[in-house]
Amino acid sequence: AEVVKKAYQEITILAGGIHVSMAPQLFKESGFDGLVIGEGEKTFLECAQRLMNGGDLENIPGLFLLRTGGRANFTPRTPLTNEEFNNLPQPAMDGLRPDIYRWGFWKKCRAIITSRGCPHRCNFCSVWKMNPGVRMLKPEAVVDMIATIPTSHVAIIDDNFFVSESRAFEI
Fold first, then answer.
1. pTM recorded for the entire structure
2. Is beta strand 115-117 parallel, antiparallel or unpaired with respect to 14-16?
């Protein structure tokens, strides 16, 4: 981010994901303008809409603005409900080249996420901190998503795919 900022001072650079959400203090001097903490769909969309309309990024839930010489206010964003999770648009996979994506050492495949979270609160795990509660796509939505993938191998990379055995078998 620092290198990009030196070349293009006027752009806004945000970071998000598990590492940012679990250890935001590590990004204090990173060159990023803000950190999206927790699930980022709503927060990032609101940031993009404000910037496109010439607005600022003040007081957006889920966004921690990095300021030099002071602390910004941070308001957490409420996690997505199961209904909101099911209404998220599916990733556009038609522009991805299936010949270059591999999962581990497996054959060419696409990775998908069909649920988030875990009902357990294990001390060694960060899943429940990042994704409180469990949200699952409806089985028919998962089957429809898999049908659109132009490769014969799919890696389901959920936090806990088998949290609902009946759902897993239905898929």
1. 0.83
2. unpaired
